[in-house]
Amino acid sequence: KINVLSIGDQKSFLSKIYTNDEFNFLQSSIKNINHNSILKQQLIVLNEIESLPETLITSLHDYLNKGGDLAIIPSKNISISSYNKLYTKLGIGRILKKNTDSLKITSVNYKHPIFKNVFEKQVSNFQYPSTASSYTSSLKNSSSILSFENNTPFVSQVNLPKATLFWIAAPLQKSNSNFTNSPLIVPLFYNMGKQSLQL
Description:
Blueprint: E1 2-8, H1 14-17, E2 23-28, H2 35-38, E3 43-49, H3 54-65, E4 69-74, H4 80-90, E5 93-99, E6 103-108, E7 130-131, E8 134-139, E9 142-148, E10 153-159, E11 164-168, H5 185-195
Parallel strand pairs: 1-2, 1-3, 3-4, 4-11
Antiparallel strand pairs: 5-8, 6-7, 6-9, 9-10, 10-11
Helix pairs in contact: 3-4
């Protein structure tokens, strides 16, 4: 089974995707993280945390250097500087600013490994999910998995020397986005989990 740890919001859609027939799924609040368990995970999801403590940044840096994957879902009001401490430490670029424009998620990178074999054909008329606010970033070694209507990335994959980081550019809570109702949510997070198991 694949070990997945979600840190942050515990009322989340993730437990429906990381079911116990294939995953060992744990949830932890930011206060109760067991730092020793971090290195045992294959995928960690930072789920809508406002500010990243230094101790967590250090633990995540070690974890990524040892080959664990990380997915980051920001909260509505993140401390951009605390997130950028992690990004600077990893050398992957930075988060630039918060946008309060409502944006539709309109394009799927069908060639991306995350969506390989997910679609029988390219769909052009699906109901576009949208976000009320999102974050603009400038990331190195990244590819877009899903993009907004203005061509900026909604979900990016950043390749690190031994690991993969996924950045979701907007909070997924229902008051900000209807993406968790979209058919894309399950293959996206399920395949992040599946890919994290290094064969």
